[in-house]
Amino acid sequence: MTPARPSVVIVGAGPRGTGLVERLAANAPELYPDRPLDLHLVDPYPPGGGRIWRADQSLLLWMNSTAEDVTMFTDESVEMAGPVRPGPTFAEWSGADGQTFPGRREQGAYLSWVYEQSVAALPPRIAVHEHRRRAVRVTGPRDGRQEVWLEGRPAPLAADLVVLTLGHLESELPPEQRELSDFAARHGLTHLPPAFTADADLSALRPGEPVLVRGFGLAFIDLMVLLTEGRGGTYATGADGRLVYRPSGREPVLHVGSRRGVPYHSKIGYEPAGERPPVPRFFGPEQVDALLARPGGPDFRRDVWPLIDKELGFAHYHRLFTAHRERTRMNWPDFEEKYAAADPGSAALQALVGTAVPDPADRFDPAALDHPLAGVRYPDGEALQEGLRGYIEADLARRHDPAYSPDLAVFLALLSVYGQLIRIGDRGPWWHGFFSYLASGPPGPRLRQLLALSRAGVVRFLGADLTVTADERRGLFRAESATVPREPVEARALVEARLPEPTVAHTRDALLRSLHTDGAAATPAGLLAVAPADGRILDRSGRPHPRRFALGPGTDARAAGAFARPRTNAPAFRQNDATARALLTFLRDHATPSALALTPKEPRVADH
Domain FAD-dependent urate hydroxylase HpyO/Asp monooxygenase CreE-like FAD/NAD(P)-binding: where (predicted)? Predict the structure, then answer.
């Protein structure tokens, strides 16, 4: 019998799968030179952009990063064993103004180009096979070849190694959402559960009718765009210089609230200048080593968060003292020494900050940041509208004013923290939400549009600690918030403006469900447990699978994004490199001589 060629199956050909291919191409000359390999990429969507960045979506939807802040290529900042293969950022590739927020279709074109470049960079004997199908199951022994079963294909793909780079996935509805959907069906209402807004059917949301929206993050921004400009509305500049919205008459009225009751903070709108914060300082490799050495592992709130709090505060005050020293009352070396000695959240630390930083607006207070409406009460809904517009205007002003550059220092420290956290694993849902709220908010122009929509009455704010109940007697959804007590809002439509929770136990993805059923471990938050060193999937006893790997948001080693800002030692790049090297090393060490003698690669094969 003809020996089988070595084979790797990558399930998911979006940004993460593309980044892995790039790292395979970069590392193969060292670890797997002049050897045959079949590389299978499985994804129902085109490689490169995948589902999220595909071409067939609204031109109105933007990226959430500026053109100069997105790259798919490593640089000298990335701490990895493999070689740096530099390449253009999105701005350099497209020629776009680096400060603009390109459309998602344009980003998809960039990702497709990166994919083609990465495939072309593979050594001659590595053949690429594209399968525009869904993978539904992986079988095979721990010590033998795996079989990857595809939807609509009778025979499985044989693989020495399997890597899941699945990205974001749909999930089954949790009990509360099922109850709301059942209530809507009984009363002829509309309930849109958590989903990707670009994929949701919004046609049932009728012009002029109130719609309750639960969630004030990026999914809401997409919803806002599609139901306003997407229905023919336009913007113009008013006589006072403010943005004005001109309705088409086809818009519903969006009543939006959330736990915090405010939108995510605006993207920072100025360039970094001066000295960057010297992080990591209080939450770096040494501290993570100590946390991991604790019996039973660290508890996030008790053990990890205090170190993060101190790290973020250090970055904030370093920038304040070095760039805005006129707003401080102590020299930096003295403050730094006392800050390092004080416990996070302690009375000593509060006293130090109170003495050295006279203006409360210059102090770092994560609790106040996380709960901006805590204790705030408005007498009625109209007062809330005015109050929230003032809050958003103040946020826009601050995030575009370099006088408040400690905010940028905290953002850079957040990136550093996320890079350390991938070694710890599951952090629970709060941290990711807090990070996104501070560091991954909407572009400033989107918040200016939100203000215009609020002034036009198309968007109405509901406030914080939002609760939604199903009124069986009236057959309506009712929303209430702590910010305006005793003033509920009723509607026939409810939209959950957030992504589905990426839990392996409740995912709609058949492949992940089968892996979990067959013994793959899930964290307490429901994420797929993987080895932080190389992404190998762990079983329930903590053993890494020798032939199965996973990267991306459904794992407990998820990074802040699949692509990254240049020169930030991005965790995704480090993970991709480590996994690529683990794959190539395994293939090199396990391939039989007869298999390695097989023919050069064939042309790329597409299986639709």
Answer: 9-168
